[in-house]
Design brief:
mainly alpha, Growth Hormone, Chain: A, globular
């Protein structure tokens, strides 16, 4: 390891995995956390949507800062901040304080965005898509097992144990990053105000919006799932927290293989076609699950099993769409990564909160599946618009 060379893939996997772990390791504990703080389940469900919303804000700010001063210092300081906020979650005296510190944990989203930007700093578009796919494929291992681990920990200890796991792992990963995360971006020489004034250049790009929305809307189906699956599992199918944690890991299995496909074929098939195929796979899984629910032949196995297709589609869409978004204006890779991540997380925050609102006692999983299906369709439309735009640009040349 050397702090003077670009970080190894393993280091990037650990850093991005920390963000994934903080998102979902405690999900099986939401019912017991609601009981602990003596609040309604919907209040604790805000720990997902508020986290996602603040993640969007963090990435918007962190991108330009890293373009100005470099990726390394921002990554390290965000790691320290995450540990402080995690400790606050553990010691929170009430639900309000917990939610405040939980929002603070969203600082880990900046680390995720800057890991992607650091890859784009040193690789061309197609190679970057492949590298990002392999990083997120490794990251998929974390959400594959973390809900299951969280459910077991909740059953034999209590909900705070999951946050102690986050605190400990963050400290260990931060040490690795300190010794291995070398700088990949030279300082821009611009003021921070100048960096933020370059955002309109991205906002005026139809392709940037197309790629960002393709990623945001495709992953929106997954975020809606995160917001609604704990309710579906416990209230509709009557699952214990540990079993719920295991079954909630289903999309991560598909996500792992989707990222593997992206890493293997993106350079050969092309970024846009991989995104389009991934959006269709995502839509297929949700549509079949909704059809089974409408006909009354759904089960706990069909609901969670078909979520593998959602994960598979996202694994194909997200690394390629992210690479497309940060390649539209390469000199603004950090800002583009932050803004694209903000769009994706912002959409996820809205859909996660909406999923928590539409599921009420006595309902089936259909309202959740309809939300997921609508966002999947919108994702297909977004990438089709990008492909149409690129054909027009090619004809203009």
């Amino acid at each position: 390891m050397s702090a003077k060379t670009p970080p190894h893939i393993a280091t990037l996997i650990l850093l991005t995995g920390l963000a994934a772990l903080s998102l979902n390791v405690f999900l099986p504990s939401l019912p017991s956390m609601a009981a602990h703080f003596e609040v309604d389940y919907r209040v604790m469900q805000l720990s997902i949507s508020l986290y996602l919303a603040f993640s969007a804000v963090v990435q918007i700010v962190a991108g330009p800062i890293s373009d100005k001063i470099g990726r390394r210092p921002v990554v390290l300081w965000c790691g320290v901040g995450f540990m402080v906020m995690t400790l606050g979650c553990i010691l929170a005296p009430n639900a309000t304080a917990f939610l405040v510190f939980r929002m603070g944990q969203a600082i880990s989203a900046a680390i995720l965005a800057l890991c992607r930007a650091s890859i784009r700093d040193v690789h061309d578009t197609e190679k970057a898509a492949s590298k990002i796919a392999y990083v997120t494929m490794g990251m998929a291992v974390v959400p594959m097992f973390s809900p299951a681990i969280g459910g077991v920990v909740d059953r034999y200890f209590d909900w705070t144990a999951n946050f102690w796991i986050l605190f400990t792992m963050a400290g260990a990963i931060l040490v690795v990053a300190y010794f291995d995360f070398g700088e990949t971006k030279s300082k821009s020489g611009k003021t921070l105000a100048d960096q933020f004034r370059e955002y309109p250049e991205l906002l005026r790009s139809p392709r940037f919006w197309g790629y960002s929305l393709a990623a945001g809307l495709s992953s929106g189906a997954f975020f809606a799932y995160l917001g609604g699956a704990p309710f579906v599992g416990t209230e509709i199918y009557g699952l214990r927290p540990d079993i719920l944690g295991i079954l909630m890991s289903a999309p991560a299995i598909g996500y792992f293989f989707g990222n593997f496909a992206s890493g293997k074929f993106s350079q050969r098939v092309g970024v846009n076609r991989m995104i389009f195929i991934g959006c269709l796979v995502n839509l297929f899984g949700v549509s079949v699950s909704a059809a089974l629910t409408v006909t009354g032949v759904d089960s706990v196995y069909t609901f969670f099993g078909l979520m593998n297709f959602v994960g598979l589609g996202n694994g194909m869409v997200i690394p390629n769409a992210t690479t497309g978004a940060i390649s539209v204006r390469r000199h603004l890779a950090g800002s583009a990564s932050g803004l694209a991540g903000a769009v994706m997380i912002g959409v996820g925050a809205v859909l996660s909160a909406l999923a928590g609102r539409v599921l009420v006692p006595g309902s089936t999983a259909l309202p959740l599946l309809l939300i997921m299906g609508a966002t999947a369709v919108a994702g297909v439309i977004s990438i089709l618009m990008v492909m149409r735009r690129e054909r027009r640009l090619a004809l203009a040349l």
